Amino acid sequence: MSTPSRSEATGDDPVYDLAADCTIEDVEEGACYRATVNGVVEYGVFVDLSASVSGLVHESNLDGSYDVGDELTVRLVDVRENGDLGFESIDAADRETVQIDHEPDITATDDLAERIGESITVEGELVQIKQTGGPTVFTLRDGVGIVPCAAFEAAGVRAYPGFELGDIVRVTGRVERREGALQLEVESLDAVDESDEIRERLDSALEEQATPHDVQPLVDWSALETMQDDLEAVATRLRRAVLENRPIRIRHHADGDGMCASIPVTLALERFIEEVHGDPSAARHLLKRLPSKAPYYEMEDVTRDLNFALGDRERHGQQLPLLVMLDNGSTEEDVPAYEALAQYDIPIVAVDHHHPDPDAVDGLLAEHVNPYLHGEDYRVTTGMLCVELARMIHPEITDELTHVPAVAGLTDRSEADAMTDYLALAREAGYDEDDLQAIGDALDYAAHWLRYSAGESLLTDVLGVDAADDSRHDDLVEFFAERAARDTDEQLDAAMPHVESATLDNGADLYRIDVERHAHRFTYPAPGKTTGAIHDRKVADSDGPVVTVGYGPDFAVLRSDGVRLDIPQMVEELEAETDGGVSGGGHLVVGSIKFVKGMREAVLDALETKMGAAEIDEELGSASVAGFED
Amino acid sequence: MSTPSRSEATGDDPVYDLAADCTIEDVEEGACYRATVNGVVEYGVFVDLSASVSGLVHESNLDGSYDVGDELTVRLVDVRENGDLGFESIDAADRETVQIDHEPDITATDDLAERIGESITVEGELVQIKQTGGPTVFTLRDGVGIVPCAAFEAAGVRAYPGFELGDIVRVTGRVERREGALQLEVESLDAVDESDEIRERLDSALEEQATPHDVQPLVDWSALETMQDDLEAVATRLRRAVLENRPIRIRHHADGDGMCASIPVTLALERFIEEVHGDPSAARHLLKRLPSKAPYYEMEDVTRDLNFALGDRERHGQQLPLLVMLDNGSTEEDVPAYEALAQYDIPIVAVDHHHPDPDAVDGLLAEHVNPYLHGEDYRVTTGMLCVELARMIHPEITDELTHVPAVAGLTDRSEADAMTDYLALAREAGYDEDDLQAIGDALDYAAHWLRYSAGESLLTDVLGVDAADDSRHDDLVEFFAERAARDTDEQLDAAMPHVESATLDNGADLYRIDVERHAHRFTYPAPGKTTGAIHDRKVADSDGPVVTVGYGPDFAVLRSDGVRLDIPQMVEELEAETDGGVSGGGHLVVGSIKFVKGMREAVLDALETKMGAAEIDEELGSASVAGFED
Amino acid sequence: MSTPSRSEATGDDPVYDLAADCTIEDVEEGACYRATVNGVVEYGVFVDLSASVSGLVHESNLDGSYDVGDELTVRLVDVRENGDLGFESIDAADRETVQIDHEPDITATDDLAERIGESITVEGELVQIKQTGGPTVFTLRDGVGIVPCAAFEAAGVRAYPGFELGDIVRVTGRVERREGALQLEVESLDAVDESDEIRERLDSALEEQATPHDVQPLVDWSALETMQDDLEAVATRLRRAVLENRPIRIRHHADGDGMCASIPVTLALERFIEEVHGDPSAARHLLKRLPSKAPYYEMEDVTRDLNFALGDRERHGQQLPLLVMLDNGSTEEDVPAYEALAQYDIPIVAVDHHHPDPDAVDGLLAEHVNPYLHGEDYRVTTGMLCVELARMIHPEITDELTHVPAVAGLTDRSEADAMTDYLALAREAGYDEDDLQAIGDALDYAAHWLRYSAGESLLTDVLGVDAADDSRHDDLVEFFAERAARDTDEQLDAAMPHVESATLDNGADLYRIDVERHAHRFTYPAPGKTTGAIHDRKVADSDGPVVTVGYGPDFAVLRSDGVRLDIPQMVEELEAETDGGVSGGGHLVVGSIKFVKGMREAVLDALETKMGAAEIDEELGSASVAGFED
User: Fold this and answer.
1) Count of Cβ atoms closer than 10 Å to residue A469 Cβ
2) Looking at the partner chain, which of A157, A307, A579 has a beta carbon nearest the beta carbon of B455?
3) Residue B209 has pLDDT above 70, yes or no
4) Does C176 lie at the interface with B, CB-CB under 8 angstroms?
5) Is residue A494 situated within a structural domain?
6) Which of B165, C152, C200, C574 is the most buried (most CB within 10 A)?
7) Signal peptide span per the entry (chains A, B, C) (predicted)?
8) What is the ipTM of this complex?
9) In a shared domain, residues C196 and C264
10) B25 Cα distance to chain centroid
11) To the nearest whole angstrom, how far is the Cα of B487 from the nearest Cα of chain A?
């Protein structure tokens, strides 16, 4: 505790007895101190308050006479500009004596590099406590940075067991370089009295640092403007997680738009982490991007995510992560997984452009960005939103990303007006529309073969960000895009002869194909995308409304141009009518359903009847279908 | 070698020539030594036997006269209380001269912490020899602990290549702290002459330390008492493995009882390892728990286990592991896997409560605990047994485990009389029967989604052991149990309308369902458990005997209440009659069979005939079915 | 830069001003230098050119008089045998002054062990640049070895950012031992003027070191002789990769011959890596062996390989790898994968004995060894070739491998004349034909259960190389071989009753079996091998030509004895006739085809017609079928 300020030091002030290591920082004008005479001169006595705090009691302020070594009580009455201290002797009777420990200079964590080898003190919040086979490593965050503090009790024995995550502490130790990174070799680790005050200061510093950069959207578009605040809230959460040393786990849709969303955000976070932690390997421990095979957050995925998070907490003393859902996460199907995370109070943010169920998910999401919540729709793709998000996190990334929204738009068939501007922006970066389409196709193709692997380096090269070698990027995209086209042609060569056609009651053309029997399995394109490609060919050959159904033993994929299907409604009715274990989802013109194998015929027959009763609406196109094909 | 004791030093004793570093520890009253005069005084000469061993030859004991530097032979005749030595000069003629090396003080490995920076000597058995890119690390076990000893020959070059695992050695080196753990920086590593003696001493120390704690069973139950000795033998093996630095690999049934068995044993071993090795990370290298998807030890699993073990031996110089089978391992189906391990003399212990084939497995098992071997049955669940086993390994764990046997019993539907006591015990720990059932359901649900992952942290939280946060545990269990119930309801909603019924020849009700066609696939509950849930509903609605068959393309799951099936017998007959590639197993009332797809109808028809010919026995219930459902 | 040689030092030579640390190595007779007088004697003045370079200007060679400290210009006229230098003073007017830096002694990387603690200089090419959380580690290769050089700029900050992979540099630093391996603590890292010269020297040193050992083939066989040069070219590539610190990734066929090929090459490379890097753990970072499930390089595999390679480059600064295809890689089906690697200029070498498509692959392969390219055929198995290859890489391995070609021959049913010699060689090593066949069966069985895992240690023990414990090896082989036989019998017991027979139009016996319906799935043997075993039994029972077709929902495996099938041709025709999505490949007597499920009947019917129209050729046997069974 520091000496109270003068305003309080009136009347029967206590007498402070300074520890030997106290400095001038620990004294306050007007306060009373225990002093020892160390010199007697004609005009008074010199007194010591501590090893380094001394001054004069002028004879005019002195009661009685003293010899060297005598103790007396003084009040500090004068601090001159040159640092000399002037005291008066006072009567200590009836005064309480208070021990004062030296209040050390607090060093900011970003000044440690210049203090190597010195013993210094830092103050802040414990954000990680990792027990190693040797020391216990306390990671401390002050307002400006993060530093690991190694405390050795005995091999593998927890040092300072009374402290836990979130505590505000003061650590004194020697600044050392270990594996090149800076750390403190702990000499003492103590609780801080003014922890509320410090926490408040840390919080406000954190808040300030977490505030995202104020970036102008890449294109002038009202849709982006309406979501700017929502995106800033997400950017703040993400920056805050980095500053708090909290791990971030990104789950994203494993398609083109999902890649255009997640890769920029991952890159921006990597760079921000490196900036904050000064350690290029920190991102490996703090950031993980994982594709989801399903278009929602499956129970299997969340169970594993949870188990990993708990394991990292136990083994490395990490905080539980912040979960980020990209191009996924807005629907009722995500609820069970979200509820599982809620058991551990793991916060979740979602940026998605699929039709949301805000009633179902909003109670479980810390932030939820979705164009439908603002009267917009899927045409604002998640990739478009996430490029803005990435720029808010780390604006320097902008130049690498200017073509990404256009890729996202093309791969998700966005018919947004802003596509014109995005395409122009991409053109400035050297990409014409065919190039961008090829990037989208290549992303999709590479992601297919990478399956559950995130494919960091390869996909970054395909997308053409993170300073990729340009010629390599071009060749790679061309190669993958060509392979994708060739494999799609081969698949359709096998499938097209087996597409059956019929006319629905409403006059629309229906095309049906058993993709399990008439398409190659376990290859590119998968059943959903195969169905989409067949539909596109049929639409191109037709004038009227077209519906395509690609089915397997226990699933069907639906695509419509010109028929208003309302698939969620259909699913509900089909289940009620058939008891076929029907579930699924989608939009007006695209969707997928599942059922039990044995009820396939019943379900498909009922589905056909329903589609025949649906309203014709020639305006409706099956755009933005990519998200539902897998 | 030390100087022989006095009793042997008579007649023509040898003359010992002490090495320069010998100390007073190396001499023995009555023995003869080569000495050098280092001082001549009035009353005799002072002689040196080594740098630190000196004394007086009184003139009364001295033949002839000597100058400084002269050599003579002396006998040690007097060791005074103050440490002064008195000699007499003797005639060395015809005496053999024996070189004596300094016999160093042996430091116990648990005293190293106080000797940091000193050069000391330890003695014991080499239990691991790991070649790193730098030094060779010899791990030495003495009677009380384990210490790594780093010997540097050249980068990556094996030091002391003459030594191998199991050798008894003496290592002299400096005690250093490395990554916080203690190790010796080897100065010398030598064979020990008295290795048999030391090995005997180590063995008896090991035996003593390996002896499990003498714990009173949690409940007073004769079934446990009869198996107490068997469990102690397993506990001894496990403790011994830890003390010998031998890795332990646990394979267990991936169901509720398997979790209730394996998690307590894993926790107890983790704590015992930490106690022995003083290193919280040691358990990561020495202990691995793995769920088995099949209800036996598959060839695929054992091939991988073996390959990992051989790899760890090669890369880390580890011993081959001890394999522990829990809630699995008693049956003939485990034999091929056991035989694979036998090729490498890997010992196996099994604790199981499934119907055993002792003739098939006992020759391959080092220990085999199974209630059937003592006239008991499946009602003594593996979880009940393993809680006792865990307590024998590390009794301090008891308080965390008192509710676990009740969970194990409920999840395996044990109708043991002791369930009353177990439930009472759980009640004392704050769990009523619904809570325990919910924990079982939650374990099962979480294990389903974790698939091949052990799910350490998550399942430990679900089971509510290892100091889990109570409120979190409760919420988590409730959440998972509810999800399990909801998913089961959804599955049955799809399936129940497609259950076909018939009456068997013996009058029992037969229910059949194609779970591949009329249940959702790749979800919870899986086909076996789905069949079980259907059966339970049918039994609840019926008075008479009920048999349920859930079948897929190449498998069927059987459940009976009131019909005595003898499934192993049926399998044998079905294969003989149909050539359908029929295999499988089970009990009287529960089992599963496999066959080739093309013979399904023939096999199922024949099965139905056999079930119709089976004896009705209203007493028989399909309890403990959990183990066979997957 | 060093002082130019004398031949250039005529007329208006420049005056060299030596840096203080220059040594006698930096001066050249006849060249001119700036000097300082440090002593005046009767017969002349002593001058300093640098701290350590001094000499006499004899009065006879001296113009004018000088005091200590005076500067003058001198020419070095005399270097005596004893090292004394003689100078003449000259007129410096109009001469250009050139600064000369000290040209340090260059230490060879294989001399570092004797220089620990000293500051030395090495020169060579940067072959890896890894940014750690601490220093930047530059790995330097000179003509004789490789050394890591750690340069610290700031924690995690790239030191010497101007340098990149492939640059020729000079590094001065202290030799340190870190984790036991040697490294330089960088004091300076500079570009080298004579980099072309050095690169040339490095290249020729590399070329020399990369040259494989000149080994005599194990048996006297013209087939091996014709391929000797090709194999040497591959050996050179592999040794060169090790010397250049380039990672090597081996993809091989996951059958017996593939194991006999890849295990010896892997072992030889491991030992060569250890020799070059002096670090037994280096092979873990530089060498990876991976089985391929398909008989060609699948797009899924290459996508992962590529992503790993890019990740290792990014994270560890590694070069992109050299890809090695063994017992795979010669066919058109490998082209897409090869093209993917070509995007990154990753070199590929293939050693295969399957029928090659040189037109398709040769443009993509750096080296291609295949007996068909030399008028030989599959009877020269890849295992036979790779044993020679392994010996070229590291001849000391020979004794461990003498039985391997015979195993390879038996497992691939090679009828080569050289088999007699190979069997004799194996007999000398203690293996009779039954033993070798058992090893082949055991390899196949173990590989089946290991699936995607390389199974290093286990398969090395089965194959009996790398100093395996002999008794263990024998028992292990016997055990696995017996299990393989037993499992095959069980599979055939189920399958044989369901084999249908017919007579083809050409009179050959046709056997058909639905292996999906009438064989166990997910067990050993898999469908292809099951079909082969059935075929073998049928051939044994028959005199005439026999064709066997094992089919599943979307595939068929073909085997013929006595009918010339030309399977690639059939595949092309089947696809043209049926639109069944037919693809596949094979030889005259063995092959496999895929089709879409729904066209199975049409494809199989057409296939039967074609087989009935094929030519009978009693000489044709379905040997070497192993490679196509999976």
Assistant:
1) 12
2) A307
3) yes
4) no
5) no
6) C574
7) none
8) 0.73
9) no
10) 41
11) 11
